[in-house]
Amino acid sequence: MITASMVKELRESTGVGMMDCKKALEATSGNMEEAINWLRENGLSKAAKKSSRIAAEGLAAIMIDGNKASIVEINSETDFVAKNEEFVSLVDTINKTIINNDAKTIEEAEQLRTDEVTIADLVIAKTAKIGEKLSFRRFAKVIKNDNEVFGSYIHLGGKIAVLILLEGGNEEVAKDIAMHAAAMRPQYLNRNEVSNEVLEKEKEIITEQAINEGKPKEIALKMVTGRIEKFYKEVCLEEQEFVKNSDLTVDEYVKANNGTIKAMYRYEVGEGIEKKQENFAEEVMNQINK
Question: Which domains does the chain possess?
Answer without folding.
Answer: 4-49 (1.10.8.10), 57-160+267-288 (3.30.479.20)
